Automatic annotation (TrEMBL):
HAMAP family: GreA_GreB. GO terms for molecular function: DNA binding; RNA polymerase binding; translation elongation factor activity. Residues 10-80 form the Transcription elongation factor GreA/GreB N-terminal domain. Belongs to the GreA/GreB family. This is Transcription elongation factor GreA.
Length: 169
């Protein structure tokens, strides 16, 4: 996690915030109890060095605690609001289509925001953070605007905003 990551705002709808908060409540309550019970049951089986159930339960506990930390941080940084209802301006929650270097045959469509923002489970959808180089460059722009940003390798990339619309799940 970068130094700035913990201070970046995460945009969430109220439904997505509520879903993540409920997930956190489950993990810190019943989830922890379930994993502790699995560890205790595996301990009773004897030799821990060769106890696959014990090691699996400890691994599950580690993953669960990491998810708890992630959710806690995410909810702490969340700004709750609805995706814009109808706007031609690039903002979090909008689906944006851009053309690279003005070439309308080389386009990409993506959501500006975060997967958590709208409760997205589809890992196939492209999502860019408003804090990413591309996201920061197009934020507040409108269709027809051309902007440039520096790629991670330092090369400038020019994009033209083709279309902006509210994200439809």
């Amino acid at each position: 996690m970068s130094e700035n990551t913990s201070t970046e705002t995460i945009w969430l709808t109220q439904d997505a915030y509520d879903k993540l908060a409920a997930d956190l409540d489950h993990l810190t309550g019943a989830g922890r109890t379930e994993v502790a019970a699995k560890i205790a049951a595996a301990r009773e089986e004897g030799d821990l060095r060769e106890n696959g159930g014990y090691h699996a339960a400890r691994e599950e506990q580690g993953q669960q605690e990491a998810r708890i930390r992630q959710l806690t941080d995410m909810l702490r940084r969340a700004k709750v609001g609805e995706a814009p209802a109808n706007s031609d301006e690039v903002a979090p929650g909008m689906e944006v289509t851009i053309a690279f270097f003005g070439d309308e045959s080389d386009t990409e469509t993506f959501l500006l925001g975060s997967r958590e923002m709208l409760g997205m489970d589809d890992s196939k959808a492209s999502v860019y953070s408003p804090q990413s180089p591309l996201g920061a460059a197009i934020l507040g722009k409108q269709p027809g605007d051309e902007v440039s940003y520096d790629a991670p390798n330092g090369k400038p990339i020019s994009v033209t905003i083709i279309k902006v619309q509210p994200y439809q799940s």
